Amino acid sequence: MNEQNVTRQTFDEVMVPLFAPASFVPERGQGSRVWDTQGRDYVDFAGGIAVTALGHAHPELLKVLNEQGAKLWHIGNGYTNEPVLRLAKRLEALTFADRAFFANSGAEANEAAFKLARRVAFERYGADKYEIVSFAQSFHGRTFFTVSVGGQPKYSEGFGPVPAGIVHLPYNDIDAARQAIGPKTCAVVVEPIQGEGGVIPADPAFLRALREACDQHGALLIFDEVQTGVGRTGHFYAYQDTGVTPDILTSAKSLGNGFPIGAMLTTNELAAHFKVGVHGTTYGGNPLASAIALKVVELISDPQLLAGVRSRSALLQEELARLHQRFGIFREVRGKGLLIGVELTDAFKGRAKDFVTAAGKHGLIMLMAGPDVLRFAPSLIIPLDDLREGLARLAKAIDEVVGATAESPAR
């Protein structure tokens, strides 16, 4: 067997079948363009699932990667390092937080947040205050704890008993939240915009009600900003545009622009409940990841870049409205910044995958957010020419799916 001769079929032969990748194999990227192993180019509207916020092969990130890579990659948690300390100071200067914990992913950041919330409640109030309130269709990661807290049972079923003390409520339902949050609640975790659940923004009044209920019952409010954070909504973190400040915030995805890193941010008072040995990580906060994330934060926190996210968002939504006028297949366009979801009409319900597949044929990398929603999460600095070209390719994909549907027998 020639180990170098690999194709898309090789995935089916050697990988655990947890994914169903596209038919093409991306090989390299530059900015908001990707080329596959056949040399074909694609406009990237997925951003590695809202990860490559500065696009592919950003020159300043490559410089940091090479410089830090030649100095120190990893040292272990028996030591600290300069890049992670600089990163913590920068994130704390930009947010409500006084303290940071670094991990390798959003799931690990959320795991740390949930453990901290339960630890705080245990030490302050005793063993009976342990309930975590979450919301239907939420997504908080794939560890067993985080997938159990997430509000999509399909991800937690079939693995045995889930951890006790997790309550799921309807998203944006203030009355349900007020009734459920009580003396046993240790934390409420919410996404400012549900990403995997369909790109559904939280009502500001809903977030305020959660804050009030948490304060009333001595519970902590956790904002999962794994997908919304680091500029994605046109603000450095989404909470900064809601009038609500959480007690704990989790971050990942765009934080490393593709290099694995996650963060949990919190206050001095709460961080004090995590003492040496209570929680940990081997790779989290390593100097290579931290140096890259520091440069990402420096670039994305620039007000001019964030203003560019908002202007690109307006253009994207205007063009999507034009596509709807042409094809009439969108029920709703929603989201904020460059996290936009397009819900399909009843006639195309359950067929988001068909549009994503057709987009790939026409040179566009797209995302879904459930079976009924197309999700847009391109680079925050996508050139306008690439944005328009991607939309032109999307129009061809829509035309193909709509045309094929019209020609086929009624479903």
TrEMBL record:
The keyword rRNA-binding does not apply. Its EC number is 2.6.1.11. Keywords: Amino-acid biosynthesis, Aminotransferase, Arginine biosynthesis, Cytoplasm, Pyridoxal phosphate, Transferase. Binds 1 pyridoxal phosphate per subunit. N(2)-acetyl-L-ornithine binds at residues 142, 281. The keyword S-adenosyl-L-methionine does not apply. It is found in: Cytoplasm. Homodimer. This is Acetylornithine aminotransferase.
